[in-house]
Amino acid sequence: xxxxxxxxxxxEVYATAGAEEKHEFLRSLGVKYITSxxxxxxxxxxxxxxxKEQGADGIDVVLNSLSHDDYIGRSLALLKPGGRFVEIxxxxxxxxxxxxxxxxxxxxxxxxxxTMMEKEPWRY
Length: 124
Prior knowledge:
Blueprint: H1 2-8, E1 14-17, H2 20-28, E2 33-36, H3 40-54, E3 59-64, H4 71-78, E4 79-87, H5 96-102, E5 107-110, H6 113-119
Parallel strand pairs: 1-2, 3-4, 4-5
Helix pairs in contact: 3-4
């Protein structure tokens, strides 16, 4: 749903996936920029190249579920000043205090999407 909404409002989507089948699925949704969800160094390198190709100086919004291999820190380094960081992961996530200490300019929220879908399935 997040990808479809982002595409609907004209946002450029940068996505991560592990298995090639998931890369193919993302491409079928119209995602052009896909990088690794398993290798933080590759993610960082690819994202810098994607942004350079787009002529972008960073990203506006991060929808994150990855906490291993410093994905949170790596994503924050790409986030524009005043950006938004939405966390949907469960383990290894940052507290609001940690985020404020690292990037006080970022609006940070944690969302339990699974609980929301369970309690309000008619919305999804």
